[in-house]
Amino acid sequence: MIYIERLKSKIKRPFLSLCDLFHKDNSLGNNRLRISFDTKGLLPRIKNKLRNVQVGSNYGHNGIDILTLTLMTNNPDLVIETHYADLLALSVKQQKWLLKNYAVILCDFEEGGDVYNVSAETEGSGPCLIEYIKSLGIVPKKIISLTSSIFQGDYSQLNIKSIHINLWPIITISNTPFYSNFVFDKDLKEKAIKQLDSPRSHFGLCLNKKPRLDRVRMLAELDNRNMLGKFDWSLMYSKESSSTNDDLGHFIKSPNNFKFNKSLEIAEESLINFLNKYSFPQLIQDIRNEQYSDAYNISPSWFGKYYYYLSTETFSDYVTNSLGYSSSVTEKTFKPMCIGAYPLVLGLPGFELYVRNLGFKLAEFDYDKLEGKQRILSIADTIQSLSNLPFEYNSMVIHNFDLITNADFLASLISNSVNSLVEHINETASDVTHSL
């Protein structure tokens, strides 16, 4: 039996952990991600699917303090879970001791490995993971990088193994009761599926909170082709030039706007013309507020309203980190599954292939092989073509809605990753035993 216990966090706003998922109400916004699936039977389903592992059974979501851990007899079946930022918060002596004596899970469910960085000078949660571990002068017993990235690799010289986990379908469906009720109410779900057989009243929806260059390029390209008017769309952009720490949770006043404004210094003229054409922030009626907490919620009024949903993902160009590329398929892609719309994904090459491999049904459009500007142009071509054709994807839409509201599917997103993690730990332990 493997026992996963969290290392008690020393940072002010901890990152979401496996132990949080199993032992804490994470819907209150205490962590950087809000998720609530511990009601109505999903958590028991996850536990029933786990094999030879217990998560947080002794110390819950609070975790074990590093000083307490150092006083304990070393238990080979104990695996310590933490975040890179929490690891760095320890003294160097404590870091070395922990990494040498225990298998350690570094969890990053939100940023897709972006916290690991690629060099010591890169802005982020800390120095390059590889460079930093090497600087400690040790070879860790085992590090498991448990992230939402779909493009992470291993680093065998330091016993680092990458395992993928994607909480975003659960986050997406769980944060609005109107939608989470479909997961456990069979009659309600059947009525919803019947509603999806009806014609939609609107062509498309495109929600954009944080301004990013390719997101705005996508909107500008559709506007240039007179196609943007077919979408209800939003963009939380501001031309203000300063903010305070009190504004960090506020999209309109967020420093993210000012990072984007900086990038406009080298932006193409068409993008500048687009921003000058409209008043910002551009809101739609169904957005609740201008706070970060609103980013994951889905309005009930969107259900069965739109044929298409243009998903503008966080990563649409390759961003390198220590173990590969920062890349997560997030709630932006799974929202259309919930509302009964067909997704068109502005992201990295293979994002839609990844979604199909999860079990969702999508057509194989050529743009999924492209990135950046080429993908933007190809998506715009696709939208232009679809606008002149009857909607042919309703069977896929219904399948996708049925899947994202399937409790066993949602449970398996976590249990499969945890079981893979345990299998790897057991294989490694077996290899060590044989070598002795």
Name some characteristics of this structure.
436 residues, alpha/beta, Rossmann fold, 2 domains, 6-stranded parallel sheet, 4-stranded parallel sheet, 17 helices, 12% strand, disordered C terminus
Descriptive report:
The protein has 436 residues and is α/β, with parallel strands linked by helices. The protein has two domains: 2-165 and 409-435, no CATH class; 169-405, Rossmann fold, CATH 3.40.50. It is built from 17 helices and twelve strands. It has a six-stranded parallel beta sheet with strand order 2-1-3-4-5-6, with helices on both faces. Strands 8-7-9-12 form a four-stranded parallel beta sheet, sandwiched between helices. It has a two-stranded antiparallel sheet with strand order 10-11. α6 (129-135) links the parallel β4 (103-108) and β5. α2 (42-49) packs parallel to α17 (407-435), α7 (168-174) crosses α13 (331-339) and α10 packs across α12.
